[in-house]
Design goal:
One of its GO terms (biological process) is thiamine transport. This protein has 13 helices and 11 strands. With about 325 residues, the chain is α/β, with parallel strands linked by helices.
Length: about 325
């Protein structure tokens, strides 16, 4: 009887422990992800075992793990990646009551993904390098292809970065959905690019320390660097700019569906939204305090984007970029 009792205790303990963990992929910057997930664990007792990946890397890993998913939730990442994951059957719908509070257009109509915040594309110019080189910060998309900025621009690689692919689609929609003009522009831009980085935020960090004079990235990442003392000037493209909808999805076949839903709901709740609002982003949830927003979306001229088209054509456009530009 004692042996049976001991076995039962062990089984119950294992089950209890297995229910106290949720595995996640995240595209949030590591300090931000840690802040969010640590507080979730403190509030719920559920530990988040997370891996930080770029948007492109996450979609690629979900495809590779399709038959045996190694995570149950994807937090953050450019919304196009979440749409792509839906189209490939890699995620699963969840009609969270908290998701209903997110405005239409910023969540999937079938609830495969939900938007967390908006991040517009912007430029960063290192003030010290600009003075040394005798240049002014570029004001728009047509400025940064000027020959005066030869080998001065740093931007991510669209094979691994949703940020970089958002640059391609922004130019595409800016040129009235003309693909040939888009690639003509990208070839001119390529002449000014000194490096294509793996992640979308890397270029801004390099610019902050003067490794590159200019970088293209998301506004909130650049504001964070500036607030932390980086000597950079931030400009939002005057012709109009694209933006990401940083999103969240549940992974199809994830092994911790209950815990993943708890994390999903908590992130859309008031306490987590108060944290997200401090990241210099434009939150989408009404739970987030609006007084923390540095630049409201109404103050930005945005490009009219077609997110479903952009997601459906990502592989084709990226392949063309690899053929005509990639290095």
């Amino acid at each position: 009887m004692r042996k049976i009792a001991l076995i039962l205790v062990l089984v119950i303990s294992v089950l209890a422990l297995s229910g106290n963990v949720v595995k996640a992929y995240t595209t949030l910057e590591e300090p931000l992800a840690k802040e969010l997930f640590d507080l979730f664990e403190a509030r719920t007792g559920i530990k988040v075992e997370w891996v930080r990946l770029s948007t492109g890397e996450t979609v690629a890993r979900l495809e590779a793990e399709r038959e045996n998913p190694q995570a149950s939730i994807w937090v953050g990442g450019v919304g196009l990646g979440h749409i792509e994951a839906k189209l490939k059957g890699l995620t699963t719908p969840y009609k969270s009551p908290f998701a209903l509070k997110i405005p239409d257009g910023y969540r999937d109509p079938e609830f495969y993904w939900v938007g967390l915040y908006i991040g517009p594309l912007a430029f960063a110019t290192n003030n010290n390098r600009a003075k040394e080189l005798g240049i002014e910060p570029p004001k728009g998309w047509f400025d940064i292809i000027d020959s005066q900025y030869r080998n001065m621009i740093r931007v991510a690689n669209p094979n691994t970065s949703g940020t970089a692919y958002n640059v391609i689609t922004t130019i595409y929609h800016l040129f009235g959905d003309n693909e040939d003009l888009t690639f003509m522009y990208l070839k001119h831009l390529d002449k000014n690019v000194n490096m294509y980085t793996k992640s979308g935020s890397a270029g801004g960090k390099d610019c902050a320390i003067g490794e590159t004079p200019i970088a293209i990235g998301y506004l909130h990442d650049l504001i964070r660097l500036q607030k932390n003392g980086a000597p950079i000037t931030i400009t939002i493209p005057e012709e109009g700019t694209g933006f990401e909808i940083a999103s969240m999805s549940l992974i199809k076949g994830g092994k911790e569906p209950v815990e993943a839903k708890k994390l999903y709901n908590w992130i859309l709740g008031k306490e987590a939204q108060e944290i997200i609002a401090k990241w210099y982003v434009i939150p989408l949830s009404p739970e987030a305090p609006k007084d923390k927003v540095e630049v409201p979306i109404e103050a930005i001229r945005t490009v009219d984007q077609d997110f479903v088209w952009d997601a459906a054509n990502r592989e084709r456009l990226t392949d063309r970029w690899n053929t005509e530009i990639g290095r």
